[in-house]
Amino acid sequence: MKSIINFERMTKYNFHTIFLLMFLFVLSIEAQVIYSPVKSNVYDFLDRVSQKINIHYYDIVKPIPRKEIAKLLKEIERSSKFLSEVEKEELQWYENDYSYEMDGTIKRWRLFEYADTLFRVILTPEIQLQQNSLAGKKNLKTRWLGGFYGSIGENIGYSFSLTDNSEGGDSIDADKIFSSFTGFNHKTSKDRTISFEDINAMLTYNWSWGSFSLGKDYINWGSGKNGQLILSSKAPSFPFIKFDISPVKWLRFHYIHAWLASDVPDSSTFYTTTVADKKGDPFYRGNQRSKYLAANFLSIIPDERFIFSLGNSIIYSDGSVRLPFLIPFIWYYKGIDHNFYGSTKNDGYGNNGQMFFNFSMRYPEKFHFYSTLFIDEFSLTGFLKGDHSRDQLGYTIGATNYSSVIDNLLLEFEYTKIMPGTYLNYVQTQTYQNASYDLGHWIGQNADQLYLGASYQFLRGLNAKVYYQKIRKGGSQKGTDRYSSNDMPFLYLPLQKWHYFGATINYQPLYDLDIRTYFRFVNYSSDNGIAEVYKKNSIDAGIGLSYGVY
To answer: Is residue 38 one of the residues assigned to a domain?
Structure first.
């Protein structure tokens, strides 16, 4: 029997009405929201100090509003007697940076800033130069332009940024598939220089216990110093609507609905244009299959030192936005599939669901322990029988210690493991990806990463770090491989290994101005199971200057 309500049709004609009702719902109460970008230096400071002082630092979801950061700085100020002299200088530095959010005053220089009782705007130019030598081959990265951010009244916050990026030289990693750097759709010129634009914007309306946002930006969900399993900055930023609430101190809830790039052509919608090529063949107007993400994340905070989080998401595609996935509070989105397609034997009708869990504990004093579990697919029955072929999941465990051995010294340990097939799907439009880049951790499926680091804060703005990192990456399968063979153990061949021994120095002499230099020794090996193991040692080094992150 057919359903009386056609959700597909209902969503198509009423989405704008639904959005309008949601927007009118929030037009009610107080306090604008402006987010500090996920790459802001203030997060490192808050992370370190939160291990010495009990503050309400909620770092499971980023970016964090500037208003919230200002409140955290006030909490630190009240316990400043426990800070080192360097930390006190850092606290004063950030209090000046966030002075407008703290007390309505302006205590630092900016290129342009205007504020009155109704309207505030700040211009933020962004410039970056990075010269690298990778295994003896030179590489130059540039980034320029900028943006602005501000507020209107007590309820509306906004931001916009546009940067033009280029990379040239003899060692260009154009696609950045296996790299911690964000991947982009890029253009390549005749001299092999690649270029791309990074555009982000946010419009937020908030009230005393929540906010609603329209945006295109980077969102991080989950703990991790070297990448996040749930949502990270690996994939290009994507457009979304976002809903965040915290009705009481011990509970936070986050919802996002995003529009993703599937990179799967929809040939049924192609048509010819009025322009032809040199052979007389017409150019075609192309299109992609639609692809969406709906996800929520609930955090329970019994004490500022303990955060327990759980959530779920679904990648759905091939149609318009579906009303059930616009409901923020559905715990099990995959159950919607069961409602629609439960009687359909063809598995290809369904969508791709995920579940995830996160734990963060800043206890005992000066320690931080954290872990994330991301479940793409898991069979409890098979697991109990010893069959791990369906264990498509990943986990991160980590621990840091700050100022126990020496004041201002941070020690870090982190391990991440991602099983084969995680983030993939045999339906091309339902991979856990945007523009063919994983939404989660950058090492991807069938890989693990071990990281050990020690960093020291010499002065306000001057930090040095030494580290060791080991990465193993097995074969890169496709989503259909699991149907042709279940015998795909962790780190199946071909296997690549990297050992990094490195050091970095970061210095911020002025607001928004950062100078960074790094050096690392790389030991690489590759084994395809047939030929002799290939081995190579190399040295990478670089120096960079950037200006403009607010």
So the answer is: yes
